[in-house]
Request: fold
Amino acid sequence: MARTRVYVPRETAAISVGADDIAIAIARHAKRSGDNIELIRNGSWGATWLEPLVEVTVDDKRIAYGNIEADDVPELFTAGFLAGGEHAKRIGPTIDIPYLINQDRWTFWRCGLIDPLSIDDFRAHHGFKALEKALDNGAQTVIDAVKDSGLRGRGGAGFPTGIKWQTVADVQSDQKYIACNADEGDSGTFSDRILMEGDPLGLIESMAIAGFAVGADRGYIYLRSEYPLTHRVLSRAIEVARDNNWLGDDIQGSGFNFDIELHLGAGSYVCGEETAMLESLEGKPGIVRYKPPLPAFEGLFGQPTVVNNVVTLASIANIVNIGSEKYASYGVDRSKGTLAFQLAGNIKRGGLVEKEFGITLREVIEDWGGGTASGRPVKAVQVGGPLGAYLPEEQLDTPLTYEAFIEIGAMLGHGGIVVFDDTADMAQQARFAMEFCAIESCGKCTPCRIGSTRGAEVIDKIVAGENRDENLELLVELCNTMEDASLCAMGGMTPYPVRSVLQHFTEDLPAARSTGT
Amino acid sequence: MTAMAYDKQAASEIIARFDARGEMLVQILHAFIERFAWISEDAIRQLADELNLSRAEVHGVVSYYHDFRTTPPGKRIVKICQAEACQAMGSRELSAHAEKSLGIAMNASDADNTLEPVYCLGNCACSPAVMIDGKTFGRVSPQRFDDIVASSGDAN
Reply:
């Protein structure tokens, strides 16, 4: 009899709620009961609210069981889960889960599906097809496809990727680099992590394509240290790719050389800013650089460097495979393709939703998220991390596109959506924005370094009712100074959440003095 | 994490593993933390010497990054996420509970524990999140916090 395949994710969120214990319990129980199983540690599908999600292959179909605890394992065996048996926690076929089937799964399609460290499984799911195609078609064809796809940087800045690549390709230099920004520090974001844990070879393939396109033979991944499991998975994936000559010299006899070095960050939020990241990769404090020169001209060790976020890079293989026209047919305006939204905070069904640009925030929060976890009304939604605005209920119908968000003084950033219910104290959240900036500022420019501390103090005074009106005016002025005069987004965008609280959540600030008192 | 006494020979071996390349300093410091749990003055002096950097340069890197502590930690390192997604699910209350339960303030250590804030563990759909000795835990209620602390590490 063939071995029954059982899938238990090796992914941070799933493990954080018990997946390792479940894997051990299933292996032990199967041994005792004499069931012949093959235990596969896949990545996560991103339906995090169902984790730990255990699957069994029955007649070539994967049957899902959700929110499993280690204590459930004996019962699952009794219920005959290896044959897809009925159980209170049985969900049904994975491909029928509405949360998953209603997505536009282009970049994350292998996450959850495959064994992330098996080169055979990867190859069986179009793995390295795009790299082969790129090597056949030539570098400029790849760059043109990236340009035509309309792909923009998914890390937050939204710069057109193809233009960046063309710039680096056109610079004459003996040494160029690909630097993958995996310093996913925004609260409410975990899409880079899900991708690197669920499809690390996909990222490696796309980085190699980038290297081939611009003429770089060396890549770096700068991974945040808060992701120790991701570090283990990526390190192993790089070894697997090297062992199979998909990294290294003369890749698959093509004459193209490319290798990747994995570096760890060390707990600094600013290192997600591209020039601070380059400093850190050079072994220095993560202090932002003046621009120009742009990294495309003088980046890592002074050489031309493509700096792209994980999801930006990982989108490339798919664009090469399906064609830029098809990719660009998704999305609206100048927001082409898909974005991996991440539902987090006080949300009933948190997780990753890859969807074309243009659906509304409300659709994602209600249709996928199912409202708040507490069951209370939504009060505020912070989109785009700690530098993103807090949106009130009235703005939930804003379509999720770069353009629509800029119009309302907000930003999509890396696609993180953090929901707060009506118990949130928004004055406290505004203060936290300043406090966080004070903790994480690299200290190079004054508006960010000093402004953030002064900002937190002024908010304290406002909350205490001390010269309320004068201090509110001062806070607005301070926000303007920080936005206009900071070197990077840290100081430059900290005013976004603060201003949004002043605009939309005045009920959480002390009432204005009535005239004459 | 149990702090091991500083060992010059072991430190040299770590540095050699990175070919004594100055640009690997952040990576070398991680390896030092893994081995010695903290970065001592002796370590800074040796790093400067063997990497051909000034002590000020090494000190600049050590003091810049949150990960490189310069005092010995407790046996168990507990980090509680303080970022927005966890705030939305009660991380402020959880932090207050942790301080009371462990008997130390945030950013403080005793022989058994070090309690630190962390700004995002990337586990935002399972908030609030906690990391104990490098292992991430999600959906952490005060009760679950006490349970996972009790079953982690060598402190009792």
Observations:
- The radius of gyration of chain A is 24 Å.
- Chain A has four domains: 4-101, 119-328, 331-421, 426-508.
